[in-house]
Design brief:
Layout lengths: L4 H6 L5 H17 L7 H15 L8 H14 L2 H30 L5 H11 L16 H31 L8 H19 L13 H19 L13 H30 L1 H4 L14 E5 L16 E5 L52 E5 L2
Parallel strand pairs: 1-2, 1-3
Helix pairs in contact: 2-3, 3-5, 4-8, 7-8, 7-9, 7-10, 8-9
Length: 377
Amino acid sequence: MAVSPGMFHASVAYLPSSFSMYTTMLGMAAFMDWRGGLKTSVGMMWFGIGAIVGWPFSGALIIPLLAEDLALSSIKGDVSEIIYRLLDGVVRSLLVLALQIAIDAFFYHKVTVVPWNIVVYNVFSGASRGPDIFGTEPWHFYLRNLSLNFNFWFLLALCAGPVLGLQFLFQGRSATKQSPIRSMVFAAPFYLWLAIFSSQAHKEERFMYPVYPFLALNAAIALHTTLAYIGSSDPAKLVGRIPAKLKLYLVSVVVLLAVDVSVARTIGMYSAYHAPLEVYRPLHANGLAGIEANVCLGKEWYRFPSSYFLPKGMRAKFIKSEFNGLLPGQFNEAKTGFGFFPGTWLIPPGMNDQNVEDTGKYVWDHEDFLCRLLILA
């Protein structure tokens, strides 16, 4: 899994969903660790941090894990303990939210709850707003995308639930120290996430990032369970009559092939798609660095990585192209009269939440400071 193309770009992407991926892994580890008692509050805290600071929808991944804790407490009659752990987790998350609101209020010059704003816009904003205006994809988009990013491991992740069910049905026990029900609990978040986002019309690869730790876990569960069956030496079973060395050879070939395909795609992604990063390298050469100029972008403006890739004095601007949606605005660079960090709270002109084109974002011929450099693709 470490060499999969999905992990290659998700692990280093500067995105809220990547941050949620890290906190998902930490929260998942807390719910798994029963040493010294249940760590419900710690798990809730990590999932809460991911949902509050990162991406609010990632909080849905905690549902099966909380359901397990609630069921265990009900069976044991330990209601007061679960209430205490839940309150502890809620308080920890609320403290994180309070800190976030305080920091945002300083930079935005108003009190706002960013996670709630994200949920409202994406879920409750109506037909003329929301994510669907930015494009839609068919229901099988994520099946194709995850197949490219995880190949054999994605297939294993999909099979984790059925494999666990078949093992319990025919063998009546688990291949691990955990009970089959507990294994199913940890396999459930991956299916839940995939079902929720496959049902949404607007789809993006980054929406899958938070569930990558569960995808890896599901793949590991399916692989371990399958290997436990294949490794059987019981002569009464057909698989037990296969020589051990042949089994090892076949399993090694499959795993190494999956690793090779992953590495090949990762290399292919870098070699074929890193041009948007390389195209700005000449701007730092002698003779160009330090001059004041507009670097104008055409229809593939979305490939522009960041203004950090431009030398000091250069500014990214846009020219009219086939794209007819809303382009990014310019951060206000006022030095005096607007307090600290005016770019964080002064809204650029022409902004809207309906993806309506604003012609004021373009550089026009009548302007004094025209394009010195033009990047079309």
